Amino acid sequence: xxxxxxxxIQHIEEFLISQYNIKYQDTRDEVLDHIACEIEELMNEGKExxxxxxxxxxxxxxxxxxxxxxxxxxxxxxxxxxxxxxDIISIIVCMIIGLGIPYLLSSFIVDYNLANxxxxxxxxxxxxxxGFIYIKxxxxxxxxxxxxxxxxxxxxxxxxxxxxMFKESFSYKLLPLILIFLLYQVYYxxxxxxxxxxxxx
Length: 201
Hints:
Elements: H1 6-20, H2 25-44, H3 49-64, H4 77-104, H5 106-111, H6 115-136, H7 143-166, H8 175-199
Keywords: Membrane, Transmembrane, Transmembrane helix
Transmembrane segments: 88-105, 117-138, 172-190
């Protein structure tokens, strides 16, 4: 059974960096493993390394090319597609919960004049979460983590704006929006934790 040499593996890794700009090690290792296995399979079927290399990279070209959606424009397509599916589902769930809870509790919120307390609490929680995640994972690099950190911090800044603008005058109508932002942040934090736990394996 033929296996790739250290030089051949290094050649594949350098090609991933130079041709596809896969700069983060965790992603590169995952792709490298798949590609190396497929090249070895072809070599065991009688193909030479150079020929197998060309065949496999032609096969993977579309998946390794940057994703066309602007949010993931520097991310290999196969990763971008996975993330878009998860993000869309989370957006729908966050919107349903974010719109539903204030609606279901509307009479309670209005009767007890809780809009200001809830609005301030949600904004402050969002601001603290955004700052905490940004500081905790400041030096952690990766396609997904970088995007999630940026999004979490962005929502914190939006909530800071709302807090400054409506500190003493939150209305019931603003609660769904800021609650949705907070729920997005919670989803992003869960995603970051998943990525971090997988990288420790």
